[in-house]
Design a protein that fits this description.
The chain is α+β, with helices and mostly antiparallel strands. It has 3 helices and 5 strands, in the order ββαβββαα. The strands form 2 sheets. It has a 3-stranded antiparallel β-sheet. The protein has a two-stranded antiparallel ribbon with strand order 4-5. Bound molecules: zinc ion.
């Protein structure tokens, strides 16, 4: 029997810094593709829908999908709008932010 795989996420949020109006820097989250994030050497990622922790799949095999990310936690997938388990759920649940969001 085929094992259902967690949804492949090609768009993620990465933590960036920008200059603050009063001086100094402040962090903010920017949505970009995993491919771009790897090219830019970004190191902090989160799911753009539930802000949960992601696991990155960086290797690109010929004929395979481009680099992508998956939810690390099944709990996030259960309640994330783009999670496999959320999409499969038939109890009319509402998506919510991760219980352990990346801040
Ligand atoms: Zn998510």
């Amino acid at each position: 029997m085929a094992v259902e795989r967690e949804t492949k996420l090609y768009d993620v949020e990465v933590k960036r810094r920008r200059t603050r109006a009063g001086g100094g820097y402040e962090p903010f989250w920017k949505t970009k593709t995993v491919v771009d994030a790897l090219a830019d050497n970004d190191t902090e990622f989160r799911c753009k829908d539930c802000h949960g922790v992601l696991k990155l799949y960086k290797t690109h095999k010929v004929g395979g999908p481009p680099p992508y990310a998956e939810h690390k936690s099944k709990d996030d997938s259960e309640y994330c709008a783009s999670g496999l388990h959320f999409r499969k759920a038939s109890d009319g649940r509402e998506p919510r932010v991760s219980i352990a969001p990346v801040e």
